[in-house]
Amino acid sequence: MADRSRTNDILSIYVPSFFIFVGMGIVSPVLTLYAQSFGVSIFLAGMAITVYSVGRLIMDFPAGLLADKVGRRPLMIIGTALIAITAFLNGMADNFWLFLFYRLIQGMGASMWMTSRTTLLADILKPEERGRVLGYFQSFQAIGQAAGPTIGGFIATWYGAQANFYFYAATGVLSLVLTYVFIRETESGKAHSGELAFPRDLTLRLLKNRGFVYASLSTATAFFIVSGIRQDILPFYAAEVAGLSPADIGMILSAATLANLFLTIPIGYGIDLIGRKPIIVFGLVASGISMFLFPQFTSFLLLCGVSLIMGIGTSGMQQAPLAMATDATVGEPRGISMGIFRFFGDIGSLFGPILLGVVADGFGLSAPFYVMGGMIFVVAAVVFLFGEETLPGKNGKKGAMEAKPAT
Predict the structure, then answer these.
(1) Dist. CA 65–CA 87, nearest whole Å
(2) 37: three-class secondary structure by DSSP
(3) DSSP E strands: which ranges in 121-278?
(4) If we measure between CA atoms, which residue out of 345, 346, 114 comes closest to residue 212?
(5) Which domains does the chain have, with CATH numbers?
(6) Are the C-beta atoms of residues 79 and 379 closer than 8 Å to each other?
(7) 268: CB partners within 8 A, 6+ apart
(8) Mean pLDDT, the chain, whole residue set
(9) Which pTM value belongs to this model?
(10) How far is it, in rounded angstroms, from Cα 178 to Cα 372?
(11) CA atoms within 13 A on the CB side of 168
């Protein structure tokens, strides 16, 4: 991508991601509620999120290996196609278990798309621009995430929740067309290096790499919040405790993403100027505060306000860990390194709905927020005390471009 341009970035990476995240946002206000319409419990309804995470989890390693072996572009195309097809099939499903099966395959497609996309970004970004460019990239995602739940809430209100999945399929098709036309393979992707085998030695090296470990812990926490709170518990809490409509729930979820939208670029500059670690700690603390505030309110406006605080926190947690992980894995195979990084994030996605669903079934819909808040503050303390800054020149150590992998 030596001839990389702003226009090409927008058309090949940013806009396709926008449409994917619009689609994800469209189904987010109704996903667990629609699953519950099959006559299952809150815990089983949360499996609609969990099996999606399982699909991503089991595909993360293979997707990383394939990104190195066959290239970034083919994987992005196949992953996007799977997302679109299974979204349509979700709407057609006539029983809960078939619905779950399609969600599992959709998660595998999402892993292929996300891992290859992350690897492509790692290929083309320099250390000094990672925060800023990830900020631009995150802005397009945030616009999609902000618009999606609100659009989805009104679609469900006007046409029924089933229609949301058809709209998701349509956004997937738009992303697929743009990806196919505009994505160009990177030089690293053209190398077709690596073996299709479990990277035991690389995995052990990365687990000894403090920058990578704490980046992975932070992203796992961020994914835990998104899948466990934003996608699962918060819609239930807003519907059953606060008595709000799908349109209201969509706007509450969009409030968090609006904060993401307005803060991603400033936070991106902060990541490049003051470091990855301070932004991660700030994001964790803000997110933790919001968890303890949610159960205090049932008012639509106040829940929107708390959702904004959550969005402020997750803004930093979405960008900074990826920049830190990319810094920490210079010299390693990029595809599988990003696959392993995403694997840890998807562990958070997997256990978020499971753990918080069990807590909700046993102790009520307020309890998961307190559990999540406590977990976040523990992670914040660990990262603050033991985390390692990876931004070149900020810690008096070798820059990320010079650092060697830990042995």
Answers:
(1) 26
(2) coil
(3) none
(4) 345
(5) 6-184+198-386 (1.20.1250.20)
(6) no
(7) 131, 132, 133, 134, 135, 136, 138, 319
(8) 83
(9) 0.74
(10) 38
(11) 34
What's the rounded Cα separation, in Å, for the pair 331 and 405? 7
pLDDT in tens, 354-396: 899 899 989 999 999 999 999 999 999 999 999 888 887 665 5
Over residues 84-143, the pLDDT tens digits come to 999 999 988 888 899 999 999 999 999 999 888 878 877 777 766 677 776 676 677 767
Tokens of 244: 């709000």
CA distances from 142 to 21, 193, 238, 269 (A): 8, 33, 22, 17
Tokens linked to 21: 């995240």
Task: Determine the residue type at 260.
Answer: N
The token pair that represents 126 in the structure block: 């320099």
**Measured between alpha carbons, how far is 177 from 41 in angstroms, rounded to an integer?**
38
All residues at 6 or more sequence positions from 75 whose CB lies less than 8 Å from its CB, including other chains: 63, 66, 67, 112, 113, 115, 116
